[in-house]
# Entry
Amino acid sequence: MPDDCSSFFDALDATWPAAAKINAGPWILREGRGGGKRVSAATARGDWREDDLSAAEKSMTLLGQNPLFMIRPGEEALDSALKTRGYTLIDPVQLWVAPIDRLTDLRLPRVTAFAIWEPLAIMREIWETGGIGAARQRIMERAALPKTGILGRVSDKPAGAAFCAVQGETAMVHALEIASEHRQKGLGGWMMRCAALWAADQGATRIAVAATKENTGANALYATLKMEVAGHYHYRIRNAESEDL
# Structure
């Protein structure tokens, strides 16, 4: 993996942590406990051989998880080997990043976005409605400080929720969800700016977020904020039709 991407993946791992991580030969295995692909996928941590893939598959099955690998830049050989084994490519993701001061240049409008921890009940309701259920919310609880929730308001109503945590100089935003009836009102941008203002106070110098390529709305938002794509990854999953991760 290129050095200029490794810090982003370290921040991704730290700010959206698996329930457990296991170093197993050339792999890092993750126990997700229903929290989704990012916290369930195995990643390579060294040179591997074909029989190492079989060992990783067996270990993930013993964890009660469908074998799943995250493929990062520079891991084309692993991608090809998994494709040969019948693994399906799923969820190509882009990593967006910007210097923190690119999102701290405007003052937030009054009562538009707030940094709050612990999350309010209404924030949890917004997440739940958007498919970010209890298992993913437990990931936020596991993340180390500094971290915060972001509450967004529009039309005098709570309308959005997000999570942000800092690792080193990188602030990662996760779980940005806007209630369907309040989309296309500019709230997502103000919530990202609120996260950046909070993160700057924690010493972060850049802000980053991951979005699947098919999430056109999110990608358009980050492009509008003049964030740039700094890296990418995707998953290879066995028996993709058998499990929703």
Observations:
- Residues 3-94+233-242 form one domain.
- The mean pLDDT is 95.
- The first strand starts at residue 20 and ends at 24.
- The radius of gyration is 18 Å.
